[in-house]
Each structure stands twice: as structure tokens, then as C-alpha cells.
């Protein structure tokens, strides 16, 4: 649980200069980000009739929705398939991780495909900017990211805010919520400031001086008051502290999500949207955490090149963990009547090559199967948002190579997301050169995801 507020990376100065849009007070998004690129042909778009070199080891299993099949390693998905949709026809043209991250997460064609520093803002930063004049009633940030230590650098996954400014960077949490001594790094007490002194504003602001020194003084000149107000709000908010307190969840609920980093971050994401946070990203890359042994044939994230991992052996451990967490998130949203106001999206930056290749594994030293980067086709899961569910949207060809029905781009997904949040995608913000840039330059809402009245 949380004691107070230290904000060494969170409370960066902000300038209230951009236009805002009146948004639904309740709508929110949980984005589960799978960096490295999950294999669509081992998860949501299996091709059992393709040649061996394409189809891989696993077979599809039926779900409770006729015609919606998933991998045999995802049996819990099969039980709740009526509560999610699969999109099988998303694609884009950027095959490197950096270009793929930027293309997908910003809804823009990257000006510089190389490197992870955004030249356009990530969608979460846009949402944060649009909601900045709607303070969270519980004192929480409007944009929160959770994952391991790699999330502490905002550029690792192209989560940066570009020309929107650092005030729209996410509040990053890298501590493991499964640990008994879990504390949010940015919400620890400032040295020397106990809770019994929080009412002493002058002493509190003096304590915050050490944090402000970490920021660029030029950015603070006109925003010190805003910084202090946010600091005070978050430090003194009992509701903010309680939102992070997983001990308030039942043992059964915590076990259902999984007593490991992935599961408890997913559960915490639900608590945060319940507390009014409009955008929460959960980075799920390394499943071998919280007591799960890392196999020699496994890989850290979803980047299942043959040199990195034996894709099928890695999947036999990775996918059951993933199955438990994602199915728990879906079932929990519906059980708690959050399925209309919370939109859940599960995706990575691209898919994997339909054709399997073999190389010598760096760790195993033997030849093993893998798949390379493939932006020409990918699959994703969406749930909640008040939409009709139990649908398969789009299709790829018999080898999983490219869309043949309902081709979609990341921008179409973001158009639906902005519609869910009540954000006008034609609103503009000035870039570094002062040129007005629309929130979304192109893309149409996916009509299959429209809310059911």
C-alpha cells in the first residue's frame, strides 16, 4: 500500500495551453501492451490447414461462440469468448520494433522510423492532454503505465508525448504489485515529511524542492503552482492511496488474476479505472516473474525470433499465464458492470512471419523454430466498451500472410477509442514548429465496435 507522495518522475511541470474536449466522465481504456510482437498464428489466427512450415505445432479449439476459435493453449479464453472480439485484419508497413511502436501507438507515419523517441504523441498522452481540465476526483493521474523497470524510461516503448510536453507523460509504476512490500515508487513519502505534517503546506513545499530540482528549471518557471497543487492533491488523497491497495481485494480475486507481476498489474489496472483514471497501460512482456522460472528456450518479451527462443516451447509456458490474466480481466470487467465504460485492448506492435524459420538459439546453442517481424497481418483482442461481442472482425489468407477481408489500420482502432472516450479526433495541437496537428490524421471508427444501445 502507499504512504504518501514522492513524485521523483511523475509530477513534471505542465502548461495549460492546449484546447480540451468535454469527455464522458466515466469512459476509460485499459491497453495491454505486448512488446516484441505476439504471434498471431499461435494465438488468435491459427491456420490448421496450411503447410507445416506455416501452421506450427498448435491447433485451434472451439469456443462458446461458433466460428470463433483460439489456440489450444488458451482454454480460458474459450470460456468467455462471448465477451470479447478478435480483430484479425489489422496491418501497417513498419517491420522494426521502433517504427512499429511509433506507427501503432501514435496513429502516425513516423517522421523518423528509427529510434523509440516519438515525433508524435502516444495516444495515452493525447488522452491525458484532452482530460487535463477534468482533474481526477481521487487525485490520481489521468495516464498511468505499469510494467517492469523498463517503463521508467518513457521512450523504451515509444510512450513519449512529443510536442504535447512532458506534463502529459505517463505516471510510471515499475514495482511488482505481487510483492508483500509493494509500494509505488513515485508515491513514497518525501524525506522528512510524515503524514502528520501534511497539513503544513510550507514544509511540504520545501520538501518538494528536491523533486523540482530533477526537472528542467525552464519548464517550471510558469507552472510551479500547478506542480504544487498536483503534489498536494495526490499526497493528501486517501482515495489515491486506497486505489493502489490490493489488500482490499479478496484472496479469490487475486488468485484468479494470478499471483505474479502480470496478474496483479492487471488487477491494479481495474482498480485504477474504477477510481476514475481514463487511461491505463499494462506492459506484459516478461511472464517469467514472481516465481515462474525462466526457461533456457524462452525469451524476455514477445520477440520470438529463432535466435531468441524456441517459439513453441516458450509458448507452452507463456500462453497459459497470458490466458489466465486476460480472461480474468475480461470476466472481471463484466462481473463488476464495468463493461460499458471500460474498453480493454490487448495488442502488440505487429504479428510474426507466417512462415517458420530455424536458427541456432543464442541460449540453447541448438537449431530451433521461430518467427520474425510481420506488420502485414496481426491480431488483437478488444472487450468491453459497451460493444457487441463474440465477433471475429476481418480475416487473413490461408497462410496468415495478409488481410483478405476488412483490412484495418491502427488508426481505425484509435478512431474507435477516441469515440469511446468522447474525444474529437479533429482537435489540433501545435507541433514544435507551431503547425496545427490533428489528434488523428486519418482513420474511421470500426463500426463492429460501436456500442450497443
What do these coordinates show?
With 453 residues, this protein is α/β, with parallel strands linked by helices. It has one domain (28-191, 227-355, 368-377, 421-449). It is built from twelve helices and 18 strands. The protein has helices at residues 52-55, 75-79, 97-106, 123-130, 201-212, 217-220, 224-236, 238-243, 251-257, 261-274, 311-335, 410-421, and strands at residues 28-33, 60-62, 69-71, 84-90, 143-146, 171-173, 279-283, 342-347, 351-352, 357-360, 367-370, 373-374, 378-384, 392-393, 395-396, 403-405, 428-430, 436-438. The strands form six sheets. Strands 6-5-7-1-8-13-4-14 form an eight-stranded mixed sheet, sandwiched between helices. Strands 2-3 form a two-stranded antiparallel sheet. A two-stranded antiparallel ribbon has the order 9-12. The longest helix is centred in the last third of the chain and has 25 residues, at 311-335. It is globular and about 55 Å long. The model is unreliable at 1-24 and 189-228 (pLDDT under 50).
- Beta-strand segment tally: 18
Sheet-strand content, in percent, reads 15-25%
Query: How much helix, percentage-wise, in residues?
Result: 25-40%
Q: Detail the poorly predicted runs.
A: 1-24, 189-228
Radius of gyration, rounded? Answer: 22 Å
From the structure above, extract its key features:
453 residues; alpha/beta; eight-stranded mixed sheet; two-stranded antiparallel sheet; globular
Reconstruct the topology from this structure.
Elements: E1 28-33, H1 52-55, E2 60-62, E3 69-71, H2 75-79, E4 84-90, H3 97-106, H4 123-130, E5 143-146, E6 171-173, H5 201-212, H6 217-220, H7 224-236, H8 238-243, H9 251-257, H10 261-274, E7 279-283, H11 311-335, E8 342-347, E9 351-352, E10 357-360, E11 367-370, E12 373-374, E13 378-384, E14 392-393, E15 395-396, E16 403-405, H12 410-421, E17 428-430, E18 436-438
Helix pairs in contact: 9-10, 10-11
Amino acid at each position: 500500500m502507499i504512504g504518501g507522495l514522492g513524485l521523483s518522475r511523475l509530477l513534471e511541470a505542465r502548461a495549460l495551453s492546449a484546447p480540451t474536449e468535454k469527455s464522458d466522465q466515466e469512459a476509460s481504456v485499459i491497453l495491454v501492451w505486448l512488446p516484441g510482437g505476439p504471434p498471431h498464428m499461435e494465438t488468435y489466427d491459427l491456420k490448421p490447414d496450411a503447410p507445416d512450415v506455416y501452421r506450427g505445432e498448435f491447433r485451434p479449439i472451439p469456443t462458446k461462440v461458433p466460428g470463433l476459435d483460439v489456440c489450444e493453449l488458451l482454454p480460458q479464453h474459450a470460456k468467455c469468448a462471448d465477451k470479447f472480439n478478435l480483430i484479425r485484419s489489422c496491418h501497417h508497413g513498419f517491420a522494426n520494433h521502433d517504427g512499429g511502436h511509433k506507427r501503432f501507438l501514435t496513429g502516425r507515419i513516423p517522421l523518423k522510423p528509427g529510434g523509440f523517441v516519438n515525433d508524435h504523441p502516444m495516444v495515452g498522452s493525447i488522452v491525458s492532454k484532452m482530460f487535463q481540465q477534468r482533474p481526477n476526483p481521487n487525485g490520481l493521474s489521468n495516464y498511468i503505465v505499469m510494467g517492469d523497470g523498463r517503463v521508467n524510461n518513457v521512450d523504451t516503448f515509444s510512450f513519449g508525448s512529443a510536442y504535447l510536453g512532458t506534463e502529459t507523460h505517463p505516471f510510471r509504476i515499475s514495482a511488482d504489485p505481487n510483492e508483500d512490500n509493494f509500494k509505488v515508487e513515485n508515491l513514497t513519502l518525501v524525506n522528512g515529511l510524515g503524514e502528520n505534517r501534511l497539513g503544513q503546506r510550507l514544509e511540504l513545499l520545501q520538501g518538494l524542492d528536491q523533486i523540482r530540482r530533477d526537472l528542467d528549471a525552464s519548464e517550471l518557471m510558469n507552472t510551479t503552482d500547478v506542480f504544487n497543487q498536483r503534489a498536494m492533491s495526490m499526497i493528501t488523497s486517501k482515495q489515491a492511496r486506497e486505489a493502489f491497495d490490493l489488500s482490499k481485494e479478496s484472496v479469490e480475486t487475486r488468485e484468479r488474476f494470478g499471483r505474479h507481476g502480470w496478474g496483479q498489474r492487471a488487477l491494479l489496472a481495474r482498480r485504477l479505472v474504477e477510481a476514475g483514471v481514463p487511461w491505463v497501460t499494462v506492459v506484459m512482456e516478461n511472464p517469467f516473474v514472481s516465481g515462474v522460472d525462466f526457461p533456457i528456450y524462452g525469451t524476455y518479451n514477445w520477440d520470438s525470433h529463432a535466435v531468441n527462443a524456441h517459439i513453441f516451447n516458450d509458448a507452452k509456458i507463456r500462453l497459459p499465464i497470458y490466458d489466465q490474466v486476460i480472461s480474468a480481466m475480461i470476466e472481471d470487467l463484466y462481473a463488476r458492470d464495468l463493461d460499458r465504460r471500460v474498453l480493454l485492448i490487448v495488442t502488440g506492435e505487429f504479428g510474426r512471419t507466417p512462415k517458420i524459420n530455424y536458427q541456432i538459439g543464442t541460449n540453447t546453442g541448438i537449431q530451433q523454430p521461430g518467427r520474425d517481424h510481420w506488420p502485414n497481418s496481426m491480431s488483437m483482442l478488444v472487450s468491453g466498451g459497451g460493444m457487441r461481442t463474440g465477433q471475429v472482425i476481418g480475416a487473413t489468407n490461408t497462410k496468415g500472410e495478409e488481410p483478405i477481408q476488412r483490412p484495418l489500420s491502427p488508426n481505425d482502432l484509435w478512431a474507435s477509442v477516441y469515440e469511446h472516450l468522447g474525444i474529437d479526433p479533429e482537435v489540433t495541437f501545435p507541433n514544435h514548429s507551431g503547425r496545427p496537428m490533428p489528434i488523428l490524421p486519418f482513420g474511421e471508427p470500426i463500426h463492429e465496435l460501436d456500442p450497443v444501445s
